[in-house]
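Hi there. Long-time user, first ticket. I'm pasting a complex I've been working with (about 248 residues overall). I'd like to know whether the download I got is complete or cut off, because the file seemed smaller than I expected. Thanks.
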Amino acid sequence: MPRFPTAAAMPAPFARLPAPPYYAVIFSSQRTADDEAGYAEAADRMMRLASQQPGFLGAESVRGADGFGITVSYWDSEEAIAAWRAHAEHAATRAEGRRRWYAHFELRVARVERAYGLKESSFA
Amino acid sequence: MPRFPTAAAMPAPFARLPAPPYYAVIFSSQRTADDEAGYAEAADRMMRLASQQPGFLGAESVRGADGFGITVSYWDSEEAIAAWRAHAEHAATRAEGRRRWYAHFELRVARVERAYGLKESSFA
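Hi, the file is complete. Here it is re-exported in full:
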């Protein structure tokens, strides 16, 4: 039995990304207590829709029991991020998010310069 | 009552950061089922220790019920990240993490180019 998971055995929540450079959109948010069903449906829909956009590389997302969450989506270019931002359904859903689902959020766009996983880092 | 939280009212899990550019270390991880008490103590200790390092700007962290988590720490330079990586106690704790606490992890280092929060984005 391998001590470290191989790439093929990487658990599902991890994004499988090419070698850097690429771009990350780091979205941290605090949910309101409102409309869990509507929020969950919209979040699923946005993740499906994002994954169909040109330049989308992958995403990782988690939310804790206190409603604070972090979603990081990865893109091959700034242009791909801008195009997804301009997507009409995404823009409409963001407006609903600001109105109803998020008590607060912060969004940071970053260029990933280097990356490694558990297996590689065990030699570092 | 303000519709959007002011900076002063920003909920605690959000990092308060200067204007970009700065650097992000995006650490996503899947916990094993082992040693929750030891892990929690080490995680708290590392967060306290990181926050005392030169160049540390802030961090945001969340772990879900399934054991998948994302922690993003922010730094003012690549040099600050390298110095924290070389910190002896941090290195020893990382080794324990690879051995015991993490089934898998991915780490990405990125340069944050731009950022905004809920209030600003409501005008976008």
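A couple of notes from our side: The CA atoms of residues 20 and 29 of chain A lie 26 Å apart. The two ends of chain A are 23 Å apart (CA to CA).
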